[in-house]
Automatic annotation (TrEMBL):
This is EFMT1 methyltransferase. Pfam families: N6-adenineMlase. It catalyses: L-lysyl-[protein] + 3 S-adenosyl-L-methionine = N(6),N(6),N(6)-trimethyl-L-lysyl-[protein] + 3 S-adenosyl-L-homocysteine + 3 H(+). The keyword Transferase applies. GO terms for cellular component: cytoplasm. InterPro entries: DNA_methylase_N6_adenine_CS (IPR002052), Efm5/EEF1AKMT1 (IPR019369), Mlase_EEF1AKMT1/ZCCHC4 (IPR041370), SAM-dependent_MTases_sf (IPR029063).
Length: 213
């Protein structure tokens, strides 16, 4: 009879120590994020997850879109960010007293933002909490995670449900026709940039007179 224990690969004490160190560092990093010194709203405080098709905007683009949203929303305005967490983070950095913002996002890591985080799956576009009243946002900024008409169409249902009228959509240049069809938005001159270059040309679309032209 063989000794069963012999078949189990044992990690060397060196490997175990390295692993433990790695986990500790990870915990410290997470801990830092929640402690005072760390700006939890800075872009990159939550890292991109490519499996969720996440790509953060460059700081300049996020600032530009956030400022546009504040102006478009007006004093005391309400802003909804759908799948656009880097714009949400910039808006929080602006620390505006005269606007409010919430983030609808599939990635539950963003639940660190508390009550402003709303879990959102574009496959169930109207599966929203009851306190998100129809047409209760002055502007909705959306960046559908996938360049497909299905994703745009479903996200569009959510956008139309939430907005009082103004829409700022960020998506690929190839989606221009579908964006017009589903949301009545037109392409802007402003070219959004990402912190990492994307293969697809990316554009912004609006349905109101914006500062992005």
């Amino acid at each position: 009879k063989m000794d069963d224990d012999d078949d189990i690969p044992q990690l060397s004490s060196h490997t175990l120590a390295a692993l433990q160190e790695f986990y500790l560092e990870q915990q410290e990093r997470e801990g830092m994020k929640t402690s005072q010194g760390f700006n939890q709203y800075s872009i990159g405080s939550i890292e991109e997850d490519w499996q969720l098709s996440q790509f953060w905007y460059s700081a300049e683009t996020a600032s530009c879109l956030a400022n546009e949203a504040v102006v478009a929303a007006g004093k005391g305005g309400r802003i909804a960010c759908i799948s656009a967490p880097s714009v949400y983070q910039k808006l929080k950095e602006l620390d505006g007293k005269d606007f409010s913002v919430c983030i609808l996002e599939y990635d539950r890591r963003f639940s660190v933002y508390g009550d402003e985080f709303i879990f959102y799956d574009y496959n169930c576009p109207l599966n929203l909490p009851e306190n998100l009243l129809p047409h209760s946002f002055d502007i909705v900024i959306a960046d559908p995670p996938y360049l497909s008409e299905e994703c745009l169409q479903k996200t569009a249902e959510t956008i139309k449900y939430l907005t009082k009228g103004k829409i700022l959509l960020c998506t690929g240049a190839v989606m221009e026709e579908q964006a017009a069809k589903h949301l009545g938005v037109k392409i802007c001159k402003f070219i959004p940039k990402h912190s990492r270059n994307l293969a697809n040309e990316f554009r912004c679309y609006v349905n109101y007179a914006s500062g992005l032209d």
